[in-house]
Amino acid sequence: MVHGWYMEISPSVHAARFQVHTEGVDVGRSNAVVPGGTVTFLLTDVEGSTRLWQERAEAMGPAIAQHYAILDDAITAAGGVRPVEQGEGDSVVGAFSRAGAAVAAAVSAQVRLSEELPWLTVRMAIHTGEAQLRGVLQPALDGQAG
Fold first, then answer.
1. CB 141 within 8 A of CB 12
2. Is the dihedral of CA 72, 79, 74, 140 positive or negative?
3. 15 burial level (CB within 10 Å; 0-12, 13-18, 19+)
4. What sign has the CA pseudo-torsion 29, 121, 47, 119?
5. Which of 35, 37, 102, 108 is the most exposed, having the fewest neighbouring CB atoms within 10 Å of its CB?
6. What's the CA angle centered on 45, arms 48 and 114, to 5 degrees?
7. Which runs of E-coded beta strand occur in the chain?
8. Residue 138 confidence (pLDDT) above 70
9. Greatest extent of the chain over all pairs of C-alpha atoms, in Å
10. Of 135, 146, 131, 141, which Cα lies nearest the Cα of 95?
11. What is the rounded distance in angstroms from the CA atom of residue 83 to the CA atom of residue 72?
C-alpha cells in the first residue's frame, strides 16, 4: 500500500474547456496518436517548486529531470501522449483516449515518485472533455488559474 500521495481534481479544472492541438507536435514517440473527440487529460505540477529551487537548488535540476522521465514513462506505458516541450515550467500535460488510462498513468507515476523522490510532491488532476485539434497539444484553460 502506498501512503503519502494524493490526486486532486480542482474546481477550476472541472470547469475548464480543453483543446488538443496537434500540428507539428513532437509527442515523444513515433507511433503516438493524439486522441480526438472526448479526451482525458492528466495535468501535473510540482508543489512548492519555487521554494524548493531556493532551498535545494543543487538537487532540483536532477530531480525535475527524473520527475519528467517518470511521468513520460507512466504516460507512454498507459497509452497516452504528451509534447516533448510544453513551455510550462515543471508541469506536464498528457492526453488519453480513455479515462482509466489517465488514472493508471497518474497512479503509476505517483508510486514511482514516492519511491524515488519522496521529498518532491507532485499534484495531479484529471479532466475529461471534448477536444479540438488546433496546432499544439495543450489544454486551453480559458484564463482559469490552478
1. yes
2. positive
3. exposed
4. negative
5. 37
6. 80
7. 37-46, 92-96, 122-131
8. no
9. 43
10. 131
11. 10
Considering only CA atoms, which of 118, 42, 52, 33 is closest in space to residue 86?
A: 42
Average pLDDT of the residues in 16-34: 41
Radius of gyration of the chain (CA): 15
Q: Let me know how many helices (H) and strands (E) the chain has, helices first.
A: 4, 3
Predicted confidence band of residue 1 (pLDDT cuts 50, 70, 90): very low
> What's the pLDDT at 133?
58
In the structure grid, which three cell numbers stand for residue 75, read together?
504516460
* CA pair distance 29, 15, nearest whole angstrom: 31
Query: SS3 for 122?
Result: strand
Q: Which three cell numbers stand for residue 66?
A: 527524473
Mean pLDDT score, 120-141: 73
Query: Residue 47's Cα: distance from chain center in Å?
Result: 13
Q: What is the pTM of this model?
A: 0.70
Cell digits of residue 10: 480542482
